[in-house]
Design goal:
377 residues; alpha/beta; Rossmann fold; 2 domains; 15 helices; binds ligand GMT; Glyco_trans_4-like_N; N-acetyl-alpha-D-glucosaminyl L-malate synthase BshA; glycosyltransferase activity
């Protein structure tokens, strides 16, 4: 049996799919007996209950008076080096190249020993930041100096190669959901709080950033609701929220749209939906679509980025060109007016989530990568 590892994990701990994936991975590795040390500025929001193999090390930023901007990155790099030395970590697994992979590189330099680093790219570190000429060389350095680099979709691998001219190998490690948490939950009573028996529920969950095109969600719903008795549930918060509220008022849809805010128990919330809407402009993976899939809810959305690797068009959802709200609305209508087709999609969703994006399989993939960089095959 391969030896148990001591792994430092750094991610954005407060919100977003990357933080969720990093935290869930840490929990699963801890269940397998590895010792996991989260090194982050706040406690990861999905950490949950106590586990004897999980430790949390808080990065504290020194607000020394000469600093105009307190240097979080330097504090993180120092903390990584300190924890790695004290806890004798085998490796650091960082999620996001900027600044985490750069900090891991610094920590490695500071320690001067056999500390290994693994970087997982999640999307915007490449698709947005790598477009910025002033950051390109830094991101390229961080990637080249990692002992292994993984990305959450083939699309993201291609984009990383093109934008940064990277030729070194990048491992594909799809995101996953824990099938013990994500499964169709009993939701009839909750549904009744939002929709009448004959009404369908459309749902959108995101951080309401412009890239999610929440305006399209409303446009799709507006078209669907003209033809089908339905409700729209919007889950999450973010910069576009007030604009969206305004749009809903202007369209006179207030009675048919509910804002649920940020929600912790996503599996329970998604289980209320008949369909998830994800019309994003950019999406390296689209974790929420996988969460929905695992709860038996098909996705209707755009074919941006890595979404087609997750959603099989015509089997577990329907995908259209970005911004084609007419087509997306027609697809929602098609799916929600055909009971047999909806059930077929639902079963395909459950099968695909459990078999292709299963927590056990992906955790094993990461373990293999760790053993590889440590020379333990
Ligand atoms: O999409 C966001 O706004 C959040 C961002 C994050 O940091 O969590 O999501 C990125 O990583 C997720 C986990 O790998 C992916 O599921 C999302 O598709 C990706 N977002 C983008 O590519 C825009």
């Amino acid at each position: 049996m391969a030896r148990k590892l001591k792994i430092g994990i750094t991610c954005y701990p407060t919100l977003g799919g990357s933080g969720v994936v990093a935290t869930e991975l840490g929990k699963l590795l801890a269940e397998r007996g590895h010792e996991i040390h989260f090194i982050t500025h706040s406690i990861p929001f999905r950490l949950g209950k106590f586990n004897k193999n999980i430790f949390y090390h808080e990065v504290e930023v020194n607000d020394y008076y000469v600093f105009r901007y307190p240097p979080y990155d330097l504090a993180l790099a120092s903390k990584m080096a300190q924890v790695a030395k004290m806890q004798q970590l085998d490796l650091l697994h960082v999620h996001y190249a900027v600044p985490h992979a750069v900090c891991a590189y610094l920590a490695k330099q500071m320690n001067g020993d056999g500390l290994r680093t693994v970087t997982t790219l999640h999307g915007t570190d490449i698709t947005v930041l790598a477009q910025d000429e002033s950051l390109k060389d830094l991101i390229r350095l961080a990637i080249h100096q990692s002992d292994a680099v993984t990305a959450v979709s083939n699309d993201l691998i291609q984009e990383t190669r093109q934008l940064l001219d990277i030729t070194t190998p990048i491992d594909l490690t799809y995101n996953f959901v824990d099938k013990r948490v994500y499964y169709p939950r009993e939701a009839a009573a909750l549904r009744a709080d939002f929709a009448a028996e004959d009404e369908k529920i459309l749902m959108h969950i995101s951080n309401f950033r412009p890239v999610k095109r929440v305006g399209d969600v409303v446009d799709i719903f507006e078209r669907v609701s003209r033809k089908l008795p339905s409700k729209l549930l919007l889950v999450g918060e973010g910069p576009e929220l007030s604009k969206i509220q305004c749009k809903i008022r202007q369209l006179g849809l207030e009675d048919r749209v509910h804002f649920l805010g940020k929600q912790e128990d996503v599996a329970q919330v998604i289980s209320m939906a008949d369909v998830l809407l994800l019309p994003s402009e950019k999406e390296s993976f689209g974790l929420v679509a996988l969460e929905a899939m695992a709860c038996g809810v098909p996705t209707i959305g755009s074919n941006a980025g890595g979404i087609p690797e997750l959603i099989t068009h015509g089997e577990t959802g329907f995908l259209s060109p970005i911004g084609d709200v007419e087509d997306m609305a027609a697809n929602v209508e098609r799916l929600l007016t055909d009971k047999k087709l909806h059930e077929q999609f639902r079963q395909a969703c459950l099968f695909r989530a459990r078999n292709e994006f299963c927590n056990d399989v992906i955790t094993t993939q990461y373990e293999h990568i760790y053993y590889r960089v440590l020379g333990i095959e």
